[in-house]
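Regression check, PBG case 307:
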Amino acid sequence: MGINLKPDELIYPYFVIGGSGKEEAIRSFPGVFRFSIDRLIKDIEKLHTIGIDKILLFGVPERKDASGSHAYKDGNIIAIAVKAIKKEFPDIVVMTDVCLCAYTTHGHCGILRGQGWSIDNRKTLDALSKIALSHAEAGADWVAPSAMAKKQVLAIRNALDKHGHKKTKVLGYSAKFASNFYGPFRNAADSSPKFGDRHAYQLNFADGKAALEEIKADIKEGADAVMVKPALSYLDVIKEARTKFPDATLAAYNVSGEYAFVKYGARAGLWDEEKMAIEILTSIKRAGADLIITYHAKDAARWLRKS
Ligand code: PBG
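Current build output:
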């Protein structure tokens, strides 16, 4: 007895680039690629046949500026990708990351105030709302704000409602810690801060209480689902959120560094990749997550089928 993981509880993240025929390997991120849209469609087809029906998209733009405007301009990479995916696979649940860090020259998740590196929350909410709207207009089922800007869920919910996108759901990256586990992701999205760090807006890993406050606030602001990120070092937070908010849809992000541990350890002969990944994913579900965003999703779906 016990817990059985299912493929439809897993969400696979994709990094999308411009051009065509591209499938780029990423430094220190084995098994994960940046796909141009044509290749992305081919990959989703494979994903679909193994039982994964939810994806999360990250854009890697060709150009950046101080305000991250390429994240929401007409014809932005994610809007094009979402349209293409929805046309080909109408029943795939498409979620989009809503943030600025991959689109700003400074690599921060918000718009900066003057010359310093404090975040201008009002301008950031404005930009995030525009991004969310452009994704919703393209047909995204869910938008997932990950900038940790104050009241980002509320601002996005209001913007969506005002423009007739009442059905588009919001997944808040509610409890997102300033973590050391994001290394491979930042190589993939080219989104490292060029100066300073993210401690001003992401959570202190020594403080579990603040995380629960953030989750509570996002639920109040109208989030359809909330998230704890990373997952493995934060199982206590997942468990506590599950207990405190039993009715909430709770997602956990098994992030790039957690995935890389498993991969590199397996390569070094320390453990079996399949067994290790299944143990980790099962523990995240056991702690209380309804949905798990994970780079293991493709392999896990295959492993789960054969067992
Ligand atoms: C930021 C963002 C990050 C991840 C997803 N969105 C990390 C960061 O703060 O740099 C990390 C995900 C991962 O490591 O897999 N918008």
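Comparison notes: The chain is about 40% helix and 15% strand. The mean pLDDT is 95. No diff flagged against the previous build.
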